[in-house]
Design a protein that fits this description.
It is a single chain. This protein is of the alpha+beta class. It is built from three helices and ten strands, in the order H-E-E-E-E-H-E-E-E-H-E-E-E. The protein has helices at 3-47, 96-102, 135-146, and strands spanning 52-60, 65-73, 79-88, 91-92, 112-113, 119-121, 126-132, 151-157, 163-167, 176-178. Strand 8 and strand 9 (163-167) form a beta hairpin.
C-alpha cells in the first residue's frame, strides 16, 4: 500500500470511530430527552390531579334529624364527574324521588337536591346531591345508607382523561383507575 492509501485508510478509520461516537452521543441524548419528557408528563398530571370524596352527613338528636349526600373535590385539579349510581336493596335510584320511594319515605317531604353527573367540580368545591331536614325521611335515609347491600358508585376524570371509579362498598380512599367512566344509562342517578 502506498503512503497516500495508508493515509486514506487511517482517515477513514478515524471518521468511522467519530461517526460511531456521534451515534452513541445522539442515542444517549434521545434517552435523556425521553426520560425528561416522561417526568414532565407525570409532574403535569400530578399538578391537576382531582380526588373526589363522597361525604355523608347525618344527625339525629331525637327531636331533629338531618341527612345529606355530597361530593367534594379534595384534589388540586378539576374533576369531570361521570355517571353516579345509587342502589338501595339492589334497585337503582335514578333520581331523588326514586331514592325517597326506595327507602319508604314520603314523596312530599322537603328535599334539597342538585345534579352531579356530567359536572365539573373545581378544587375544594362540594355539591350535595340530596339533603333533608325532614325527620322521618332523614331517619330512613340514615338507616338505608348503613345497610351493607346499599351503595353509591361514581366515576370522575382529570383534564387529561385519567379516570377513577369509586364505590362505597370498597375503599373510597383508593378509587380504581379505569380507562373510561362506565355509562350506567337509564339507571344513573340524574337528580
Amino acid at each position: 500500500m502506498s503512503r497516500a492509501e495508508n493515509h486514506i485508510v487511517r482517515l477513514t478509520f478515524w471518521q468511522t470511530i467519530l461517526s460511531v461516537v456521534g451515534i452513541l452521543v445522539a442515542l444517549l441524548a434521545l434517552y435523556a430527552a425521553l426520560n425528561e419528557s416522561a417526568a414532565v408528563r407525570q409532574q403535569t398530571a400530578a399538578a391537576v390531579w382531582p380526588f373526589v370524596q363522597l361525604t355523608i352527613a347525618d344527625f339525629d338528636t331525637g327531636e331533629a334529624a338531618g341527612f345529606s349526600i355530597g361530593f367534594t373535590n379534595a384534589g388540586v385539579g378539576p374533576a369531570k364527574v361521570g355517571d353516579v349510581m345509587v342502589s338501595i336493596d339492589g334497585k337503582p335510584a335514578p333520581d331523588w324521588r326514586a331514592l325517597v320511594g326506595l327507602v319508604g319515605g314520603d314523596a312530599g317531604a322537603m328535599v334539597s337536591r342538585n345534579f352531579i353527573s356530567d359536572r365539573v367540580l373545581r378544587p375544594d368545591e362540594t355539591v350535595e346531591i340530596i339533603a333533608t331536614m325532614d325527620v322521618p325521611l332523614a331517619r330512613r335515609l340514615i338507616t338505608a345508607i348503613r345497610e351493607p347491600g346499599n351503595y353509591i358508585a361514581f366515576c370522575y376524570c382529570s383534564i387529561f382523561d385519567d379516570c377513577w371509579l369509586a364505590d362505597s362498598r370498597k375503599n373510597l380512599q383508593a378509587p380504581e383507575p379505569v380507562e373510561m367512566c362506565p355509562d350506567y344509562g337509564d339507571v344513573a342517578y340524574r337528580n
